[in-house]
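step 3/5: co-fold with heme C
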Amino acid sequence: MNNCRIATGVVAALLIAGPAFTQEHDESYHADYIFGAPLEPTEAWIITRGGRLYDNWYATQDMDAPEGTHPAWPSSNSRTGATTWRCKSCHGWDYRGADGKYGSGSYETGIAGVMGYSGDPAALESVLREHGYSEAMIPSEQSQYIAAFLSRGLDDMNAVIDFDTGEVSGDTGHGAAIFQTNCAACHGFDGRALDWGDADEPGYVGTEANANPWEVLHKIRNGHPGVEMISLRAFDLQDAVDVLAYTRTLPEK
Ligand code: HEC
Ligand code: HEC
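step 4/5: write tokens
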């Protein structure tokens, strides 16, 4: 009898609180995953954080976009505004600047790449302050993540993506297996569940992977700034390359 009453009490408590597995994470959980840092960050996480800062340091830190155009942005290029403050805009998705894909096209600036940069974290921080990034924009701690990314996280994209054609040498079957069991949770099986384009020109995984495989490889390896997206950094580069090869077979429209 007693046991039975206790059991009834437990059931009643569960009904009131709801079993743990149906509880939604609260908003602070998501914000912490996207913008915060683990208590004991691994090398893989540190590098990806640096990679997202390199992509877009203000979205990565949940900050407003900077105003004006970066002082080092050349007048030969007609772009203006916040995008000119992103590291990738001057140094490239392939990290090779003028020697890479940004040697021509709408992001042509003539600025050198960062591939092979050998500065230590203190040296990089001075470089960033000279670049016009204040402590409020990129605090020292964040600068250290970028230093880790530059010294240990830059992939040699020329080895896996054809520089002229964008063709990717990957195993699409293995890429499909990874995509269907990971990426599809958010992007759908055909990569069209999220759309960052507009009605005329949709932006799907397949669209982006064909238009700019260098950017997509950077995002597969490091995640996408300011949103809940995974990164494949803890796996071999070839796994990410296989996914990239497969995403180029997905619908572009
Ligand atoms: C508006 C363009 C621009 C942006 C944005 C930019 N840089 Fe640079 N960066 C330069 C220029 C110009 C140089 C000098 C290289 C050259 O001679 O072309 C440079 C040089 C560097 C170097 C090499 C320094 C050395 O001493 O060898 C590093 C590292 C670097 N930038 C990192 C970054 C990082 C990290 C970011 C983003 C937080 C960033 N840059 C954003 C223009 C830019
Ligand atoms: C937990 C959800 C989630 C998972 C898993 C995920 N993504 Fe994403 N991804 C996002 C979100 C959210 C965005 C932002 C979309 C937007 O801006 O509308 C994004 C953005 C992207 C973008 C870039 C969009 C742009 O603006 O250029 C690409 C490419 C991409 N994801 C590919 C992948 C690939 C490939 C995988 C698997 C390795 C993956 N994603 C896994 C949530 C996810």
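step 5/5: annotate
Residues 182-183, 185-187, 194, 196, 205, 208, 216, 219-220, 224, 227-230, 232, 243, 247 surround heme C (ligand 2) (CB under 6 Å).
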